[in-house]
Amino acid sequence: MSETVKSIYFIFILLSVPLNLLAQNSNPKEHYTYQVREEHGDLNNDGKMDRITVKMDTVDKTRPLRLDIFLSQPNGKLALAVSSTKIIEPQYPVENQGKFNGYQIPDFSIEKGILKMRSEIEGGNITYDFKYNNGNFELIYVDKLTNNATKGYIDEKTVFTETKFDLVTGMRTETDEISGSAKALSVRKKRVLIRPLPKIQDFKFSDKKLY
Prior knowledge:
Layout: H1 3-26, E1 32-41, E2 50-57, E3 65-72, E4 78-84, E5 107-111, E6 114-121, E7 124-133, E8 136-147, E9 159-166, E10 171-178, E11 186-191
Antiparallel strand pairs: 1-2, 2-3, 3-4, 5-6, 6-7, 7-8, 8-9, 9-10, 10-11
């Protein structure tokens, strides 16, 4: 092989490597193949059924989850409007060193045009309401219920705290009560304005600490 041919062959190899890498990166293999949730309902108020799905990546050892929202189109088909891998915590987070996060995969429902996401949290649960507005799904309401039990079980002295946060008006109300009691122990109200309203595509599962 002549020196000229060798040089051309070497240059071709150098050029082909980054091109091959680029081709691989631009077409990542789909790993979110296991569907764990699916709901139907009218989200964009057009009288047609929309669809949401939650799928799990079965290849990644952390078992991340992806929420997809498909909206109906004038042609009768569904089109992907939102896709997020940040809104649901992986089942085996990296920081847990391979251990289960301890929570079930969130439940989703569509009620009167509102997309509801109910998640387990430490000592209770939290429900987020998202409403479609001008092309976005905005967080409009949060309902959180927790308790102060520390012994692993609930008894007659356990205090439950319910937090209702209307992000549209900015009114946040916390109510403490004991199960079975007709009177609340304490009620705290304050106004917290968040503008612009959080969008579902920007929402992270760790945001539960904000509400």
